[in-house]
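Hi support team,

I'm opening this ticket because the web form for multi-chain structure prediction keeps timing out on my end. I have pasted the exact lines I submitted so you can reproduce it. The total is 303 residues across two entries, so I didn't expect it to be a heavy job. Is there a limit I'm missing, or should I split the entries? Thanks in advance, R.K.
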Amino acid sequence: MGDAMPRDGDTMREVIEQPQESAAKEEALFVARLKSGDEAAFTEVVERCAGRCLAVARRFMRSEDDALDAVQDAFLAMFKNIQKFDEHASLNTWLHRIVVNACLMKLRGKRRRPESSIEAMLPTFLADGHQTHASRRWADNPAGAMEHTELRRLVRAKIDELPEQYRNVLLLRDIEGLDTAAAGAALEMTETAVKTRLHRARQALRGLLDPHMLGDSQ
Amino acid sequence: MTCRELIEFLMEYTAGELSPEVKAEFERHLSICRSCAAYLDSYRKTVELAKESHMHAYELPVTAVPPGLVNAINQARKKQADVAV
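Hello R.K., no limit was hit. The queue was backed up. Here is the completed structure from your submission:
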């Protein structure tokens, strides 16, 4: 049995903290190996983290080749900047940010197609402020009406229909979990702009999903 | 408060960022406007569905990484190191 197993007399706090402390020590040692230029550590970090990095890149990039390129760029940036990494931070979180930045840089370089307008995807109002078309209640359990896999695919497809600058804000805030300030820094925009775009992106996505989500009674 | 105003400040409402006075007005409107209540409910579900839609992609196992990727990164790193020297 390993050391992480609880022993008689351990308090719950000790039981919880032991594995956390040991994981933190392991990570500090691992980062030290990376900083010293240990070849095996470089290979290990790629083998250990490439899967998760690729999953992040696939969410941003519209082609598999671009996602693979972004992951490669991210690891190269990580190796180049490893001396700047603060040992007190999480290596996973740092790498996650680097992947996101690599994707955003790639997307900025592309900007290949004209941005569609989001206006047509937003709700409209009458002169007196009422909604032009009354909103109807969605099914309580939309996933129940559809296979989970099918529903996830539909939602991802609708997110991809959003104009890129709105899609990126939604991905960063609602899916990658960055806070407003971090998303603003990554996208080089103010926090107010992030908030405005996020709200519009959510409204547009709601509108795109609406026809698929109405309950049976509608 | 109109439907337009309510929908404009929906994000602040769901994030709990409205002042008590505006929140009270917001909730009064929601109690009498079925359309806005439905909109709020679907807005919340949209955020949940967006999160849920990518959760499984995030848990991609290492085995699903294309075999060439790890090699390509390691090779590129060695090239990068050679250039630096």
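A quick check on our side: Residues 9 and 107 of chain A are 55 Å apart (CA to CA). Let us know if the file doesn't open in your viewer.
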